[in-house]
Automatic annotation (TrEMBL):
Native organism: Cafeteria roenbergensis (Marine flagellate)
All residue ranges annotated as the U-box domain in the record: 38-112
Name the record gives this protein: U-box domain-containing protein
UniProt GO molecular function: ubiquitin-ubiquitin ligase activity
A single cellular component GO annotation: nucleus
Length: 135
């Protein structure tokens, strides 16, 4: 680290503090992942298996993806990756209710409240069925 920053003591101290913050946050993220355990399918992006934060429904196939993943697909081709039907960003159907249920599940798991986590999963399953989402 000293080679990179030279001998400036203030810059070195700032860099050390920055590294400490990164190490702390990385440790917390790993701890949170361990507490969360396996993400229920109804609350996970099917490609990256990450928690849905900003889910969208692809109307031509009914599949649900995280918005950023859907947009990435559309950069390559303006079609639904599941059935090759034409699809644009304007066609994506936001599902904020599903994102809220995913956040509710995360909060419950981090709090150790298994019954609330289970209830959030059940609500998400009902939500997906009522919005004609494909599993």
């Amino acid at each position: 680290r000293k080679r990179i920053l030279g001998s400036d003591a203030e810059a070195l101290a700032a860099f050390e503090a920055f590294c400490s913050v990164l190490e702390e946050r990385t440790g917390k993220a790993k701890d949170d992942e361990a507490v969360l355990g396996e993400i229920p399918e109804c609350l996970a992006d099917p490609w990256f298996y990450t928690i849905l934060k900003d889910p969208v429904r692809l109307p031509t196939s009914g599949h649900v993806l995280e918005r950023t993943n859907a947009l990435q697909c559309l950069l390559n081709k303006q079609e639904d990756p599941f059935n090759r039907q034409p699809l644009t960003e304007a066609d994506l159907q936001p599902l904020p209710g599903l994102g809220e249920l995913a956040a509710k599940w995360v909060r419950a798991r981090l709090a150790g409240d298994d019954s609330s986590a289970k209830a959030a999963v059940e609500e998400a399953q009902v939500f997906r069925a009522s919005h004609e989402c494909v599993d």
